[in-house]
Amino acid sequence: MSQHKKEKKISLPKFFIGLTLVIIVLMWTIPTFGILVTSFRDSTDIYGSGWWTVLPHKDMVKTDEFELPADTDPNSSITIEGTTASFDEWREGIYVSADRQLRWYGNKRSRKIEAFEEKWIGFGANLTLANYRDVLSAGNVTYEDAQGNTISRQGSNFGDAVLNSLAVTIPATIIPILIAAFAAYAFAWMEFPGRRPMFIMIVALLVVPLQIALIPILRDFTNWGLYGTFVSMWLAHTSFGLPLAIYLLYNYISTLPRDIFESAYLDGATPFVTFVRLVLPLSIPALAAFSIFQFLWVWNDYLVALIFLGDRNRVVTSALAAMVGEKGQDWHLLTSGAFLSMILPLAVFFGLQRFFVRGLMAGSIKG
Q1: Phi then psi for 281, rounded to 5 degrees?
Q2: How far apart are CA 51 and CA 47, in angstroms?
Q3: Total number of domains constituting the chain
Q4: pLDDT at 165
Q5: For position 167, what pLDDT does the model report?
Q6: pLDDT at residue 313 above 60?
Q7: Alpha-carbon distances of 103 from 59, 116, 139, 142, 310, rounded to whole Å
Q8: For residue 10, what pLDDT band results from cuts at 50, 70 and 90?
Q9: 66: domain range?
Q10: Which of 124, 136, 255, 359 is the most buried (most CB within 10 A)?
């Protein structure tokens, strides 16, 4: 009997832990799924209903449309199919029969009436790829707003922003990894003067906010003619990411068995050959963990890109910020741009996640 009660006491906390995890996962995934669905919806559908309406449900479906005579006065009572009502009432929609509703579409000048009937709608109705095409395009974008007005605007040219972000992020991830791997190997297994003070200085740089270095570095880049170039971004992100990279890789490389290094030295391997043939292959979990950190940080960076690139070569974050200012009401474009900016970081994380925990635990257990 006591054993049965003990099992209940143990299972109850596990139930609440599992429930909490499910709630947290839903809080993260539901808004993300909403952004994904909205990015595929037509602009008129976005203004008229929520994203959850793409799920199977019963709703009013447009079956017909027609225009009223040109002499119709929208400022007085309007009679349609035997029903008389004001413009505002027709605008809201009126049932002229048990299963037929009529709505005035647009403003008073449109005189367009839409007929709706209640029907079942399957999953993914009216989804389109036009939003992504318009976001990636640099030409004119035309769509209708909630009032039925035709809007024409310049495209966001998000495709160039994605390519610019790749041109910044890939080198800004690879360069600090290579430099930090060499440095971590030297600090872990090589003896040289000033080794400990230099390592302490590198670790101390972890607590220095990068904002205090932006203006001095910007002045130097301007004097060297590097402002607005990808080289300035590579150098900036490399310098800002090196302290964490060296510390993270040092914790892992220092835990590698000493025997393999002694065997390599006895076989006549130089330190460089030992690093390339042994250290790098054995350090893949730590390298992958830092790659995730660095890639996500550089890809999602806005401040450094704004200061060192400006508007010369817009990256994804700068392009999204510009879209919020220029197209703040165009939800179909903003959600498409937001999801485009999420695809590659998610792919990188899920592709390297099996190394993530191993890399984070590097050096935590010795012996």
Answers
A1: -60, -35
A2: 10
A3: 3
A4: 93
A5: 93
A6: yes
A7: 15, 8, 34, 24, 48
A8: low
A9: 57-121
A10: 359
Strands 140-144 and 150-154: antiparallel
Comparing 129-143, 156-170, 246-260, which segment has the lowest mean pLDDT? 129-143
Query: Is 149 a domain residue?
Result: no
Structure-derived torsion over alpha carbons of residues 116, 120, 122, 128, reported in degrees to the nearest 10: 0
pLDDT at site 363:
47
* Residue count of the chain: 367
Question: Are 176 and 250 in a shared domain?
Answer: yes
Co-location of 265 and 329 in the same domain = yes
What kind and span of H or E run contains 117? Answer: strand 112-121
Region for residue 82 given its phi and psi (left: phi exceeds 0; alpha: psi -120 to 50; beta: otherwise): left
E-strand stretches of 39-99? 57-67, 78-80, 83-85, 94-97
Structure tokens at 95: 């049932």
pLDDT of residue 337: 85
Question: 62 and 32 share a domain?
Answer: no
Nearest to 165, CA basis, from 40, 345, 335: 345
For the whole prediction, is pTM greater than 0.90? no
Question: Helix 331-360 crosses helix 316-326 at what angle (to 10 degrees)?
Answer: 150
**Is 313 in the same domain as 169?**
yes
Q: Residue 187 maps to which CATH number?
A: 1.10.3720.10
If asked whether residues 28 and 105 sit together in one domain, one would say no
Could you give the 3-state DSSP secondary structure of residue 129? Answer: coil
Q: Has residue 20 been placed in a domain? A: yes
> Quick one: average pLDDT of 242-270?
87
- pLDDT, tens only, 338-355: 888 888 888 887 877 776
Is residue 292 in a domain? Answer: yes
| pLDDT surpassing 90 at residue 298 | yes
Tell me the C-alpha distance between 286 and 301, whole Å: 22
Residue 102 φ/ψ region, left for φ over 0, alpha for ψ in the -120 to 50 degree band, beta for the rest: beta
- The contacts found for 189-192 with CB under 8 angstroms, 24 or more apart, are 189/253, 189/254, 189/261, 190/271
pLDDT band at 366; cut points 50, 70, 90: very low
What's the first-to-final CA gap in the chain, in angstroms? 43
For residues 343 and 349, what is the distance between their CA atoms, to the nearest angstrom?
10
Question: 117 has which bridge partners?
Answer: 61, 100
In-domain check, residue 272: yes
